[in-house]
Amino acid sequence: MSKFFMYGTELQDIEQMMMLVPNFIPRRSGVVVVKKLKYEKSNVICPDYDRYKCSQGRDNNFNCFAEKAAAGEICYEKIVNDYYKNLKSYHLKKRLEQLIRKFNGDIFLNPIHRSRFHTILKIQNESLKSKNPTYLATLFLLTADDNLCRIAKDHIYKNSFDFKNMRLNGINTDGYALYQTARTIYTGIEHIKMSEVADDTLIGTDAFKAIINATMVARYGADMFQVNC
After folding, report:
1. For residue 190, what are the CA distances in angstroms to 42, 185, 197, 224?
2. What whole-number distance in Å separates Cα of residue 224 and Cα of residue 208?
């Protein structure tokens, strides 16, 4: 007579497995018991869920940001005002109003700035979408000024920036402000205050535009480059 009660039944393999000593060496074959799981909507998160919602006509503020920006449905004024709505500085608000009024559909300062930025990504064999927002914002600032880009270019790496070895010889006030803002965004440590950024006697129009747009890139990432109105 067999010592197994379930011998000759569908459960004999399970009973034999339970009779083995602890920490036994697994056999080459065995039985897998699977319990049917009940999936609920709250337990399943799809990375394209917001995009799907948008395609179904469910509109929520900045859902599908890139598509709406490219289509001109989300404008630069809305983006900037939404980001800085809680700041009370009169000087900053005044400069932002001027910046918004002069926006020409391009967040880069000029074609040279755009070319420097994209050339570095091309050398790295990287795309905009492959970079995180912090990296893009930092690179945006370091390529905004001729002298700063010359100083920084040998210290820009695929996934990092070496600020300690960037020698700021011959850099002007605007370039220094761009550098300190880049450090602030990259490290999360404040190296420049918004009160300084707002002061038009300290920071010129182009540097101000680059700083503000970099903060937008740090928030929205590569999608910010789709904004055209």
Report:
1. 38, 8, 12, 23
2. 17
